Amino acid sequence: MQLIRRFAGYLHKYRLWTALAVFCVAAETVFELVIPMIMVNIVDVGVANGDRAYIFQQGALMCVCAVIAMVLGVGSARFSALCGHGLAAEVRKAEYAKIQSFSFANRDRFQTESLVTRLTSDVTTIQNAVINGLRPGVRSPIMMITALCMSFLINARLALVFLVAAPTLGFLLFQIIRHVRPLYSRMQRAIDLVNRIVQENLTAVRIVKAYVRGDYEIEKFGQVNDNLCQVSRQAMRIAVLNMPAMQLVMYGTILAILWIGGGMIIGGTMQIGKLTGFLSYVLQVLNSLMMFSNVFLLLTRAIASGQRIFEVIDEPLDITEEDAQDVAVEHGDIEFDHVSFQYRAGAAEYVLRDITLTIPAGSTVGIIGGTGSAKSTLVQLIPRLYDATEGTVRVDGRPVREYPLAHLRDAIAMVLQKNTLFSGTVRDNLRWGKPDATDAEIEEACHIACVDEFIGRLENGYDTDLGQGGVNVSGGQKQRLCIARAILKKPKVLILDDSTSAVDMVTEAKIRDGLARCLPHTTKIIIAQRISSVLNADQIVILDNGRINEVGTHWSLLEHNRIYQEIYHSQQEGAGL
Q1: Residue 289 burial by Cβ neighbours in a 10 Å radius (0-12, 13-18, 19+)
Q2: Under a CB-based contact definition with an 8 Å cutoff, are residues 509 and 334 in contact?
Q3: Residue 381 and residue 341: Cα distance in Å, rounded?
Q4: Domain 334-575 is found in CATH 3.40.50.300
Q5: CATH second-level architecture of 2-313?
Q6: What number of other Cβ atoms are within 10 A of residue 212's Cβ?
Q7: Could you tell me which of 340, 325, 490, 494 has the C-alpha nearest to residue 398?
């Protein structure tokens, strides 16, 4: 019930449609319940007395009630659809907004394909539950209670049959739901697996083709697809028992009523018209029970999906703004004060351990080290993509926790290891850095990042559609576009996380010169594998297994740091240093 109340909260904007849907269903049910009473009068009064005028009068009244009930039924279906689609839109919006507020640590707790399923399939399940369940959910209890009352009014003794039929059906329904509910949760998890395989294959389609692993991928997809099919079959095999159980109780009840009622007619204690009307109410009661059982099945699946949705919405945020003040980044000084970090609380090891480092504003700092030395993790603490586990990260002398997140991240431009471009034109992607950037600003940023060297070769220049993920440009071109996008922000701090690895050394040198010339007051942090990328940095930080091994200039490190010497000599021939 708590889950249902929470979803009802998202219907706030659609209260009118919800009220109209409930009203239409209730009114439709009332008019349908009037019809059997009219039929009783036609048989017991009109037919019994041979009164044609009365029969036609009551028949016309029955037709009017049927037409009104039909119009109300159409209205209830329309308003229910508006409620269902509106609820789905609001839930999807809230879930997506929560995902956008996730830190990297929050995001690590959910797989991408699971989030996609929760935003699509699970929300659609909730939507269908409202559209298909609102009408029978309101109609069945009204119809059942009213029909039971009318049945007792017609013949209380005969109506006692329901005291056996209703508990029997309730027991059967309980057993069905008890067994099918966990299977619905398994179905959604199986959909997660299918989405994961599809997403991995489509994202890495070039690798699949290059390694000729299409047959392997087909087999792997077949396994998860068969798993989904098997779980779905198990769930449906149990769920479809709802109809046979309903029919068993329905036909058993009708037979009992005909047996008992027939005896009453023979004994002269009941009229044929009343038995006919009673049977109509019996069918309505049993139909309402059938609808109610279907609603329970819809709710059972919706609850399974709802729990998955609220796992996302209720996920506690690792990074909050409770300590934020109305302050701004002015210079770009950075300080790591005995900073340690681990991805999960209680993990066996720290990824970063006791990092103490000062980076003056406007300086250029290179970070170099072996694979897995936590270079990327270190710089991700500056814009609070992760929060330090121990110690303090400061910008301009203030802990980063004291800055509003939006402002802090806007003041720090970061070009990540994995270059990401979005669907749209080159110009659209560049304006991610500054939505209101002028053409002159775009051209200046592209000149610094050496994008102007290839932009003229694209089909429509800045208006070239890049396709999904930038499939129309090479790796090096993609890196330069990402750098230009970051430059457009005019940041106080610019972080380049191995973002020139696909660029030749001549172009890289041009980019470094352009950054030094055009962004002299910006603090620049360059993570690199090549020593040539950090050769002229004001200071170079050597990271080794999450610790600072040494900090110095190129020549001082080359003179006496063993790690730096090994990296230098291993690259000397290939880099031409």
Answers
A1: buried
A2: no
A3: 9
A4: yes
A5: Up-down Bundle (1.20)
A6: 8
A7: 325
Pairing of strands 364-369, 539-544: parallel
Q: Where in the chain is the domain with CATH 3.40.50.300?
A: 334-575
> Residue 99's closest CA among 120, 121, 122, 115?
115
Q: What is the pLDDT of residue 573?
A: 57
SS3 call for 254: helix
Sheet containing 390-395, strands listed edge to edge, beginning at the edge strand earlier in sequence: 352-359, 334-341, 390-395, 398-399
Task: With a cut of 80, say whether residue 297 has pLDDT above it.
Answer: no
- DSSP character for 489? T
pLDDT in tens, 501-516: 878 888 888 998 989 8
Over range 107-121, report the average pLDDT: 85
pTM of the model: 0.73
Q: How many CA atoms lie within 13 A of 214 on its CB side?
A: 5
The Cα angle at residue 431 between residues 427 and 437, in degrees rounded to 5: 100
* DSSP state for residue 453 in the 8-state scheme: G
Provide the CB-side half-sphere exposure for 69 (13 A, CA): 15
- How many other CB atoms are found less than 10 A from the CB of residue 116? 17
Confidence of residue 576 (pLDDT cuts 50, 70, 90): very low
* Cα–Cα distance measured from residue 252 to residue 354, given in angstroms and rounded to the nearest whole number: 77
Q: How far apart are CA 488 and CA 435, in angstroms?
A: 9
pLDDT of 383 above 70: yes
Question: Which of 409, 444, 415, 385 is CA-nearest to residue 524?
Answer: 415
Stretch(es) of the chain classified as CATH 1.20.1560.10:
2-313
CB burial of 26-52 (b: ≥16 within 10 Å; e: otherwise) equals: ebbbbbbbbbbbbbbbbbbebeeeeee
> Could you tell me the two tokens for 306?
């709802």
Tallying the residues shown for the chain, one arrives at 577
pLDDT at 65: 85
In the numeric block, the tokens 């230098």 are attached to: 568
Looking at the DSSP assignment, which residues form a beta bridge with residue 526?
Answer: 366, 496
Asked if pLDDT for residue 282 goes beyond 90, the answer is no
Query: Which residues are CB-neighbours of 163 under 8 A, at least 6 positions away?
Result: none
Task: DSSP letter for 316, please.
Answer: P
pLDDT at 1: 65
CA 43 to each of CA 30, 58, 146, 150, 282: distance values in angstroms, whole numbers, following the listed order: 21, 10, 21, 17, 18
Provide the residue type at 543 as one letter: L
The packing angle between helices 112-119 and 52-100, to 10°, is 150
CB atoms within 10 A of CB 393: 23
Closest to 528 (Cα-Cα) out of 417, 414, 378: 417
**Structure-token pair, residue 488:** 């457009």
User: Assign residue 503 a region: left if phi > 0, alpha if psi is -120 to 50, beta otherwise?
Assistant: beta
Inter-helix orientation angle 112-119/162-203, to 10°: 130
| Token pair for 217 | 């991928």
Pairwise CA distance, residues 414 & 383, whole Å: 9
